[in-house]
Amino acid sequence: MTSGASDVVLIAYDGSENAKRAIRHAGHFLSASRAVVVTAWEPLARQAARISGLSGVMQPGWVPDVSAEDAALADAKMINEEGIDLAQKAGLQSEGRCIETITTVWAAIVDIANELDVNIIVTGTRGATGLRALLHSSVADQVLKHCHRPVLIVPPCDD
């Protein structure tokens, strides 16, 4: 990647060790004028509705306290701040964004990448294989399949 005034790297960050590794690789191998660390979050009310729908059991309605910040957003902000700090330590001029997922995490990442017109997306992956990979599709794999931008996928450390 050539360095220029408009070079923007989007780093998907969820606080996992694999995401931390992806930030270190981005700082080591990429030069860009700007890095945006993105943390996706889902409101607790939507999480509760999705989980209760999966259980097949009718759940009583839950109305969140709209005067207080959603706990999921507060958690996402803390995770995002950690990612910004790691990116800055890796040598990247970084800023953060917490993005609300409407459908899936990978779709939220693709949407924000398009909105920001980034040059490359960096993400870690769990490196799942076999049956586990079939049952739980990787966010990184879905970003790669659905985003028409370069994607750097950093695999987990081989311990």
Strand order in space, largest sheet: 3-2-1-4-5
Helix-residue proportion? 40-55%
The CATH H-level homologous superfamily of one domain? HUPs
CATH topology of one domain: Rossmann fold
Biggest sheet features: 5 strands, parallel
Average predicted confidence as pLDDT: 85
> Roughly how many Å apart are the termini?
29 Å
- Helical stretch tally: 6
The CATH architecture of one domain comes to 3-Layer(aba) Sandwich
Order of helices and strands: EHEHHEHEHHE
Strand-pairing-aware structural class: alpha/beta
List how many beta strands DSSP finds: 5
Oligomer: single chain
Q: Globular, elongated, flat, extended or rod-shaped: what is the shape? A: globular
**CATH first level of one domain: which class?**
Alpha Beta
Pfam families: Usp
Organism: Hoyosella rhizosphaerae
Protein name: Universal stress protein
Family: Belongs to the universal stress protein A family.
Key features?
Rossmann fold; alpha/beta; globular; 6 helices; 5 strands; 159 residues; five-stranded parallel beta sheet; 44% helix; single chain
Q: What is this entry, summarized?
A:
The chain is 44% helix and 18% strand. With 159 residues, it is of the alpha/beta class. Helix 1 (17-29) links the parallel strand 1 and strand 2.
Task: Please give a structural write-up.
By secondary structure, this protein is of the alpha/beta class.
